[in-house]
TrEMBL record:
It comes from Rodentibacter rarus. Its main location: membrane. It is a multi-pass membrane protein. K(+) binds at T111, T112, I220, G221, T322, T323, N439, L440. This is Trk system potassium uptake protein. Belongs to the TrkH potassium transport family. The keyword Transferase does not apply. The chain crosses the membrane at residues 12-32, 38-57, 69-90, 133-161, 182-203, 237-257, 278-297, 339-368, 397-421, 460-485.
Length: 487
């Protein structure tokens, strides 16, 4: 393992990240409501840390191997999260403990959206912008951005890409060269962000709210600049725009590229309809909305049937895609609905998207595997391959998905027991771990709107859960195996 080369690359990434502190400092300068000094101090400290890591190792440029890439990604995410905490600690208000500041920073970077901050409407614009911007950077992944723009990472970029990207289909490339793939992913991501910001602005948001909410919408993060989240705007049009961009962002970005690159040569809608994961994702969204709407109609919860449908549509898409926006307190709806929505977050977004959870592709394969085993009960000698579209899935892929599912449950149980041992009630602990491991944000009980009631020692455990969910567990767990460290 090339430790010095790994430290060199982490140093480069940290120095690049330090530049992002200048953007909220500029926001503080524009609005003049404070925060500029904290971000400038954080910029200098981050730059110094990056330089101290890079300079002693700048001559070491060995080619990266697969396990080097895993170690870089995990180490950088933890270093980055710690440095992202600096502005939150340097601000006079809100005053956060170390555990709370680390939790908030990691929640932003992992696009979880769980927060320990209240009174958002009265905070300086710079800190509000920074929280949203962290989610935008973490959404597509700052490692993927680095692969796209830093030539020094051209060698071994595939190892970083594999460790950073999500889902069981991470070996697929949009372009032959991995740097080109990273660039195309970020171009799509940037265009979606611009389109979302313009749509929000035209729908009535202020330019600041439109830009910042486009960050957390396209990244499926869920942070807002208001305590009431999207309910602050009380606009059916803004809700509809949010649902549209959440659905787009929860789909595979590689599928978006393939679809729009065929415009003029082929009907791009057919590209989506031919994709098994997309069909399964849209079908489950429709079923979820129909079930919840029927329950709300049966209880006559809102003043009109249309309002029932509108509220359910927004909350169903927001929670099931692991975004976490809210327009009202959905936890007090008829109990079947909030429980179903929270459980739906386990599926999350598609592979290759910015959503959290198990991923739609894995859930689909597990479903197909279950169907096959039921048929084998009746016909033991039946040869029944599992197909992904027209392609027969390798049994090793199916086995790896079951292994991931088992590891997911194991991490969930370990974190759950740890949070309960920290003094949290079992119900609240279950919801807090669910919200963090699925990168969801809100849940039920005392953590339905924020995590301020969670003790500091439990926040450290939940921070680890958020990173596990963002890095899809195996990337992190691999570091704890003896085989990883063998020469």
């Amino acid at each position: 393992m090339h430790i010095l080369s790994i430290i060199r690359i982490i140093g480069i990434l940290v120095m690049c990240f330090s530049g992002t502190m200048l953007i909220p400092a500029f926001v503080a300068l524009i609005y003049g409501d404070g925060g500029g000094k904290a971000f400038m101090q954080a910029f200098v400290l981050s730059l110094v840390v990056g330089a101290l890591l890079w300079w002693p190792c700048h001559h070491h440029k060995q080619e990266l191997r697969s396990r080097d890439g895993f170690l870089i990604v995990v180490a950088f995410w933890f270093v980055l999260g710690c440095l992202a905490t600096l502005p939150l600690l340097l601000f006079d208000a809100p005053h956060l403990t170390l555990a709370s500041a680390v939790f908030e920073a990691f929640s932003g970077l992992t696009t979880t959206g769980a927060t320990v901050m209240t009174g958002l409407d009265n905070l300086p614009k710079a800190i509000l912008f920074y929280r949203q911007f962290l989610q935008w950077l973490g959404g597509m992944g700052i490692i993927v951005l680095a692969i796209a723009i830093i030539p020094l990472l051209g060698i071994g970029g595939m190892q970083l890409y594999r460790a950073e990207m999500s889902g069981p289909m991470k070996e697929q490339r949009i372009r032959p060269r991995i740097a080109e793939t990273a660039k195309m992913l970020w171009i799509i991501y940037l265009l979606l962000t611009i389109s979302c910001a313009l749509a929000y602005w035209l729908a009535g948001m202020t330019p600041f709210d439109a830009l910042t909410h486009s960050f957390s919408t396209v990244s499926i993060g869920g942070f807002s600049t208001h305590d009431a989240s999207m309910g602050y705007f009380n606009s059916p049009l803004i809700n509809a725009i949010t649902v549209l961009f959440l659905l787009i962002s929860a789909c595979n970005f590689g599928l978006h590229f393939r679809a729009f690159s065929t415009i003029g040569r082929e009907n791009f809608i057919k590209i989506y309809l031919r994709d098994p994961e997309f069909r399964f994702f849209i079908s489950t969204q429709i079923i979820l909305v129909v079930l919840c709407t029927f329950v709300m109609w049966n209880h006559n919860y809102f003043s009109s049937s249309w309002q029932d449908f509108e509220q359910v549509l927004f909350q169903a898409v927001s929670i099931s895609t692991t975004t976490g926006y809210t327009t009202s307190d959905f936890t007090v709806w008829p109990s079947f609905v909030p429980v179903l929505l929270i459980l739906a977050s386990f599926m999350g977004g598609c592979a290759g998207s910015v959503g959290g959870g198990l991923r739609v592709a894995r859930v689909l394969v597990l479903y197909l595997q279950g169907k096959r085993e039921l048929k084998r009960v009746v016909h033991p000698n039946l040869v029944y391959p599992i197909k992904w579209g027209k392609t027969v899935l390798d049994e090793r892929v199916i086995g790896s998905i079951w292994a991931f599912f088992s590891a997911y449950l194991l991490v969930f149980l370990v974190c759950l027991l740890g949070v309960i041992a920290s003094g949290v009630t079992p119900f609240d602990a279950f919801n807090a771990v669910l919200a963090c491991l699925n990168n969801l944000g809100p849940a039920l009980g005392s953590v339905s709107s924020n995590m301020t009631a969670i003790p500091d020692n439990a926040k450290w455990i939940l921070t680890i859960a958020m990173v596990c969910g963002r890095l899809e567990i195996f990337t992190l767990l691999a570091l704890f195996t003896p085989a990883f460290w063998k020469a």
